[in-house]
């Protein structure tokens, strides 16, 4: 599926400005440009915005690793915020750590424009059978 089509399935991600660069079962990459409306005090990109970026990229990665007809829902997500983003773009890359029958675990690393770590997110997604 095309990255733009995948992103269109997530209106919240679109509304917050998340962009997808590439999407495959082994790796999904996206970004979120700095903007004043996405900031907290002092012009720092809000942690919730970074978490939205990571959750979106990670969810797409989980989705692309599902068996045919299955869907997914987040069971758990753990975020470590490591560095402030005061300009430029936050970049996220998600890779599956575990693809099983009942769960998919994804690690998403977020970096700044210089490749420095900004956040690390591990999420566990349920594999849900067809409705």
From TrEMBL:
Cross-referenced Gene3D superfamilies: Hotdog Thioesterase (3.10.129.10)
Name of the top EC class for this enzyme: hydrolase
GO MF: hydrolase activity
Classification via CDD domains: PaaI_thioesterase
Keyword terms: Hydrolase
One Pfam short name: 4HBT
Nucleotide-binding in keyword set: no
Start and end residues of each Thioesterase domain: 42-118
Top-level taxon in the UniProt lineage: Bacteria
Entry EC no(s): 3.1.2.-
Protein family membership: Belongs to the thioesterase PaaI family.
NCBIfam families: unchar_dom_1
Protein name, UniProt field: PaaI family thioesterase
Biological source species: Geodermatophilus arenarius
């Amino acid at each position: 599926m095309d990255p733009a089509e995948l992103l269109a399935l997530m209106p919240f991600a679109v509304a917050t400005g998340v962009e997808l660069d590439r999407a495959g079962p082994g790796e999904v990459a996206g970004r979120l440009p700095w903007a004043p409306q996405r900031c907290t005090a002092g012009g720092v990109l809000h942690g919730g915005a970074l978490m939205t970026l990571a959750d979106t990229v990670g969810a797409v990665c989980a989705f692309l690793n599902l068996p045919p007809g299955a869907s997914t829902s987040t069971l758990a997500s753990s975020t470590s915020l490591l560095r402030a983003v005061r300009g430029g773009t936050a970049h996220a890359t998600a890779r599956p750590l575990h693809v099983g029958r009942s769960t998919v675990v994804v690690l998403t690393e977020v970096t700044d424009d210089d490749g420095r770590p900004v956040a690390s997110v591990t999420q566990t997604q349920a594999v849900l059978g067809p409705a």
